[in-house]
Amino acid sequence: MHLHRSNQTRLLRRLAADRCKYCDTPIEWFERYDSLRIPLSPEFPAGPVPQRMQWHLAKGVAYPGRDPFTGYCRIPHPAICPAAEHPDLPEELQDVVARLAVRMRGRIDRGEFAPYIEPVIEEQVASPDPDEAQQVRHVISYHGTLRLAPCEVHELRCISTFSGTQERCENGVFDVEEGKWEEVDIPYAPGRQGQQILNLTGGRMWAWVVNDFTFLRRWWKQQCVDHFESGAPDHVTFELIQFHPLLHDDYILTERPEGYERAPVGQDIVIHDGPTGDKALCATPGCWHSTVGKQPEGWRCWECERVEKRRARVHRRWGQTASGSSAW
Predict the structure, then answer these.
(1) Distance CA 255, CA 264 (A)
(2) What are 43's strand-pairing partners?
(3) Which superkingdom heads the taxonomic lineage of this protein's source (predicted)?
(4) Going by fewer Cβ within 10 Å, which terminus of the chain is more open, N or C?
């Protein structure tokens, strides 16, 4: 199955149906306008719903506010989850939460559901935690927007579906040429814990910064070069979650990670007195990069060499997949 390249969302509806792990209420995930994802309820008449809780859909993407054509809206599930405390719940939604609570207690009493045991924080109810979160996780910065990866930045995997096996793509998202480590400001966090983080870090931390818009779009969708704008559906949910200093203080880096150095710029340039030496042209068709000095036959420039190695890894993986399928 492939999605049209102009489609605004890559989230298949059959993969979006889920149940809250705290109350077992059916929910449906939708991509938000800012590429995050949000669990929404069925449609309600927008009249009794407070404006701050109103969301609507446009071409499969969730936006704040009511639907201008139907007058209906959807409510984020964390706002009405009966497993969370809602001290400021509007009177109009109290009956909705009470009905969901009755259903939850009934399923628990009948042994059909066991709630997930964890201190419930309203902002995190039914949050799509990555399945394979590692102990070391890096923060990625997009023009000041901070997202926490489920792993180190160089191990971040593409979330698209590989058409050959219908499994998750094994390619990586990372490319050392598309970003760099920089110190960024830690978002403000109130309270004593926030002040403690400020005192320990000076309000700065290291993050992998991707600011070039050409690369930013691919990182924002968490896709590899082969699947970017290919129309392939997502195999898993978007794994980069919003960074919060109080919840993710264990992953704040105060020292720059090592091992992410770029190749020296101009490494193939040879300074000479004049055009007296041999000039080698890149062997890749259509590439006009060259270097001064005698090179072996079939020499490729560093950029074509990097592309060729990436293609070889993909073809080798396809060959292993094909041999494994034929053995069956």
Answers:
(1) 23
(2) 74
(3) Bacteria
(4) C
What DSSP assignment string belongs to 8-28? S----HHHHEEE-TTT--EEE
**What type of residue is 16?**
A
In whole angstroms, what is the distance from residue 32 CA to residue 116 CA? 26
45-76: per-residue pLDDT in tens? Answer: 888 888 889 999 988 889 999 999 999 999 99
pLDDT at res. 128: 42
Q: How many Å separate Cα 103 from the centre of its chain?
A: 33
d(CA 3, CA 17): 18
| Nearest-angstrom CA–CA distance, 38 and 66 | 16
Cα–Cα distance for residue pair 321/165, rounded to 1 Å: 8
Beta bridge partners of 44: 73
DSSP annotation of 65 reads: S
What does residue 128 show for φ and ψ, rounded to 5 degrees?
-80, 75
Q: Map 291-309 to HEC letters.
A: EECCCCCCCCCHHHHHHHH
Q: Are strands 17-19 and 204-209 parallel, antiparallel or unpaired?
A: unpaired
List, for residues 32-52, the tens digit of each pLDDT value.
887 788 899 888 888 888 888
Distance CA 140, CA 150 (A): 11
pLDDT tier at 319, thresholds 50, 70, 90: low
Residue 127 in this model has a pLDDT that exceeds 80: no
Strand partners, 29: 39
Collect contacts of 282-290 with beta carbons under 8 A, ≥24 apart: 284/308
